[in-house]
Specification:
3-stranded antiparallel beta sheet, Immunoglobulin-like, 6-stranded mixed beta sheet
Length: 293
């Protein structure tokens, strides 16, 4: 009797537990069914024991773009503030579906990327297509070192927990170098001007010397010509004088000849007159000559 009673109690207890389990299973099934009906996903069958699927929302979907700064070398800008500085950035991935941000950091000495760097500017990068480049520009107000920090698009490299950052090359706005370069340029300019003045002076002196030499040559030529003309004139005068002398001599000779002829003619006339006045005189002369003989 006792054995039967104990078995009856066990069955009643077991039956109650079975009913409770069935109620829990039914409630669980109802909850699961309600959740499936409320979600946008659809159920599917799989032979695998377990499946893990991660589907991010559209706001965080990575567009497969990738930004890089094209230069790695430090820019030494020999200018004084304020002055515009810039770095070049390029998209080497797929086309960007939206814009992203960039910031500019500054420090008087050292690397602006470290903890001493001070943020001085923030801007946006327009959406870039594959292979497209653009310049990030900032009007620097102090002399020193600058760096640009750009953010990749959200979800870059499937990392949706935090934004990926990239840093540009360092840009040194070097006013001291600008002043030194200006002084050097001014010195070169002054040296060039001084050299040009010396060359101009030498050229002027050579020109004047050539001019003086030319004048001397011309004067010498004129003197020689003058001497030559003088000699020719002297020769001409001598020739003319000689001709005049010869002419005078000829005239004198002609006068003498005329005079001789006149004298001769006079003598002849005298003899003729004398012979006519004393016709007997020749006979006396003849007689005298005969006596002498």
């Amino acid at each position: 009797m006792k054995r039967y009673t104990r078995m009856a109690k066990y069955r009643v207890k077991h039956f109650k537990s079975k009913i409770l389990i069935q109620v829990v299973v039914i409630c669980y099934a109802l909850v699961m069914s309600a959740s499936l009906l409320a979600s946008d996903t659809s159920a599917y069958f799989s032979t695998q024991s377990s499946t893990s699927v991660s589907i991010p929302t559209a706001d965080y979907w990575w567009d497969q773009s990738e930004l890089v700064f094209t230069s790695k070398n430090t820019q030494n800008v020999k200018e004084c503030a304020p002055h515009e500085i810039s770095v070049e950035i390029k998209n080497i991935g797929e086309d960007m579906t939206g814009s992203t941000e960039f910031k500019v950091y500054f420090t008087e000495k050292g690397n602006p990327q470290n903890k001493h760097g001070k943020e001085v500017h923030e801007g946006n990068i327009k959406p870039l297509d594959n292979g497209e480049k653009t310049d990030l520009v900032y009007e620097a107000e102090e002399d020193g070192f600058y760096k640009f920090k750009a953010y990749q698009m959200e979800g870059f490299d499937d990392n949706y927990d935090e934004r990926t950052e990239i840093w540009s090359e360092k840009v040194h706005l070097n006013c001291n170098a600008a002043k030194s370069e200006k002084e050097e340029d001014d010195k070169k300019k002054d040296d060039k001007e001084e050299k040009q003045k010396v060359e101009d002076k030498d050229t002027t002196e050579e020109t004047e010397k050539d001019h003086d030499t030319k004048e001397e040559d011309e004067s010498s030529d004129q003197d020689e010509k003058k001497d030559s003309d003088g000699e020719e004139e002297t020769k001409s005068e001598e020739k003319q004088h000689k001709e005049e002398e010869e002419k005078d001599e000829d005239q004198d000779q002609s006068d003498e000849d005329n005079k001789d002829e006149q004298v001769k003619e006079g003598d002849n006339e005298g003899n003729d007159d004398k012979g006519q006045d004393d016709p007997e005189k020749p006979d006396e002369e003849d007689e005298s000559e005969d006596g002498d003989k």
